[in-house]
Each structure stands twice: as structure tokens, then as C-alpha cells.
Specification:
Elements: E1 3-4, H1 7-13, E2 37-38, E3 41-43, E4 48-51, H2 55-58, E5 59-60, H3 63-67, E6 73-80, E7 87-93, H4 97-105, E8 118-122, E9 125-130, E10 133-139, H5 144-160, E11 179-187, H6 190-196, E12 212-218, E13 225-231, H7 235-249, E14 258-260, E15 266-272, E16 275-282, H8 285-302
Parallel strand pairs: 1-5
Antiparallel strand pairs: 2-3, 3-6, 4-6, 6-7, 7-10, 8-9, 9-10, 11-12, 12-13, 13-16, 14-15, 15-16
Length: 308
């Protein structure tokens, strides 16, 4: 089966189911995480499996998201029961817990921990991540019986994955005050920056699979600033990216730490060794500068040793 879906809708169209074995990191067979039956639902057909070379056969138009996060493989299973909606399940092996969190963060609208290390539940749909796995379970239209089964499946697969995994280290540098936690987005590809805050068609900030990037919102809904942190592989790469960003995006930043742009908001930028700190859309200059200062304080507290 080939799925054709835009990136924005991909999360609502893709899904996953649970299992009954407790597996350590990187189980060799994802099917061991899935039960044969649950509450009368049975596997309808042979499992479908896809790797990096075949993911486009399954998700035409959405594969880029997973591939940009180090995707290794996915197993898909459909469960059926008479007079009940099918339950479609996908377990994505994202290789690391940081990548699993990153994929999950793109669909995060609320902060929940009902399942795994972070979850999101809506009618007929459960998304969550644990360890190196991103899990989606869908049974739609939802019935009272299918909702119970869906939650039991989520609990089952959560229990089958024995190990949790660390969050991206860059998240520890986000200031807590006024942080909108559900807005946090972690990525390695500049397209995902543009999907949440458009900067340019070109990759001005040189974001790639050697960088870690985090974008988060701060403040009240009508006046939210955006904080972007990018960790480069070294100081030279960070300097090259920042110089290019300033030259192409806002040359005034070469002379000032913060600049007011045409819409009245403030943009600020600062390079701290191999870490780039940028604030967009700040309603006041002091708010933009404050966010940068808070990141630097957290760096100092962590003793990361970033050079000025």
C-alpha cells in the first residue's frame, strides 16, 4: 500500500501498534513488539516492512521527514475485528532516542506523558515515542471499544520497549521562563525550520545532519518570540553559518546584537563558540536580548566550555 500525504498531514494518517515482549535497545525484529491479537482484533495480513531505500513506496510525500532523522526501518500491521474500525500500526525505528523525539516533536500540540516518554492522544489516534522508537496507532472512526483497545495497545508496546533514551542535549539550554513547551521542535534539516518559521528558501544557516537545531516559542500567544539554537560540529562551521546568515538575511546584525525589522519586531543573534543563538519575532528589544543572555547563563552553568 502506498500512502500519499502532505508532510503536515502525515502524522494523522500514519499509525502503530504494541507488543508483549520486553526488548532491549534496537530489537532485531520489530514484530516482537506487536501482539498477534488484542481484545479480539487480529492481524489482517502479513506485516509490511520498509527501509531507507523503500520508504517512498509507503509514504509518498512524507518520507523526507523520517529520512532526515536517521530513519532505519518501519513495520506496518493492520488489525481487524468484525463491526469495528481497523487498527493500523506503524513502529518507526529512528536509530536514536533523540531522532525519535525529533519526529514526535513535529506533531506535538500538547505536552503529555500518558504513554512512553511523550505522547499525544486525539480521537482514534495515539502518537508517542520511547527510546529509539516513534509509534503511531490509529483506529478511526473511534468507538468505545476501539478506544479501549487502542489504549491497551499503546500500553503494551510501551512495556515491550524496555529502555528509555536521552533527550537531545541542546534542550537543556532552553530557558524555562515563559517557554511554551509544546512548541519545541528539534531537527537536522533546514526545511523543518522553514515549516515552523520561514527564513529563506536557501539553507542560510547551514543546517544539516552534522548539526543539532532546536526552535521554541516564548511568551503569550499574541506576542511570542522564537528562540533558535544551532549546535555546529566546530567553531569554524558555526562562524561560517552565522556570517552567511547575517550577510544574506539581516546585514545590520554585523554591527548590532539586535535589530528592529519592518514589522516592528526584533531579531537578535549571537555566536558563542560552536553554538549559534538567534531570536526572531521578539515584541521588544529587551526580550530578544534577555533570551540570548539566559541561554548564555545556562551554558555557563553547564560548563560546556564554548569559546567566545
Amino acid at each position: 500500500m502506498k500512502l500519499v500525504c502532505p508532510i503536515a498531514a502525515c502524522f494523522l494518517l500514519m499509525v502503530t501498534l504494541p507488543g508483549g515482549f520486553s526488548m532491549g535497545k534496537g530489537t532485531s525484529d520489530l514484530a516482537l513488539l506487536l501482539p498477534d491479537t488484542l481484545r479480539g482484533w487480529k492481524a489482517a495480513r502479513e506485516d509490511a516492512r520498509y527501509g531507507r531505500d523503500t520508504l517512498y513506496d509507503y509514504i509518498d510525500g512524507g518520507a523526507e521527514l523520517y529520512l532526515s532523522y536517521g530513519f532505519k526501518r518501519v513495520i506496518n500491521r493492520t488489525y481487524v475485528k468484525a463491526n469495528q474500525p481497523d487498527m493500523v500500526v506503524d513502529i518507526f525505528d529512528m536509530d536514536t532516542s533523540q531522532n525519535a523525539y525529533g519526529v514526535f516533536s513535529h506533531s506535538m500540540e500538547t505536552v503529555e506523558t500518558t504513554f512512553g516518554q511523550g505522547s499525544q492522544c486525539s480521537e482514534g489516534l495515539v502518537l508517542f515515542w520511547k527510546g529509539q522508537y516513534y509509534i503511531s496507532i490509529m483506529a478511526y472512526p473511534e468507538t468505545a471499544e476501539s478506544k479501549k483497545a487502542l489504549f491497551d495497545l499503546a500500553k503494551s508496546i510501551e512495556g515491550a520497549i524496555a529502555e528509555e533514551g536521552p533527550l537531545p542535549a541542546l534542550l537543556t539550554l532552553l530557558p524555562h521562563g515563559a517557554l511554551v513547551r509544546e512548541s519545541i521542535r528539534y531537527f537536522h534539516h533546514h526545511a523543518w525550520l522553514n515549516s515552523h518559521y520561514f527564513v529563506a528558501d536557501q539553507n542560510l544557516l547551514h543546517i544539516d545532519d552534522t548539526t543539532d537545531a532546536v526552535l521554541a516559542k516564548y511568551g503569550e500567544s499574541k506576542n511570542r518570540s522564537l528562540l533558535l539554537l544551532i549546535q555546529y560540529r566546530d567553531v569554524t562551521a558555526a562562524r561560517s553559518a552565522y556570517d552567511n546568515f547575517v550577510k544574506q538575511y539581516l546585514p545590520e546584525l554585523s554591527q548590532k546584537k539586535s535589530v528592529q525589522i519592518e514589522d516592528g519586531t526584533w531579531t537578535a543573534g549571537h555566536l558563542k563558540g560552536s553554538l549559534l543563538i538567534v531570536v526572531f519575532n521578539a515584541p521588544k528589544e529587551e526580550q530578544a536580548v534577555h533570551l540570548i543572555d539566559e541561554v548564555e547563563k545556562r551554558l555557563a552553568q553547564k560548563g560546556e566550555g564554548h569559546e567566545k
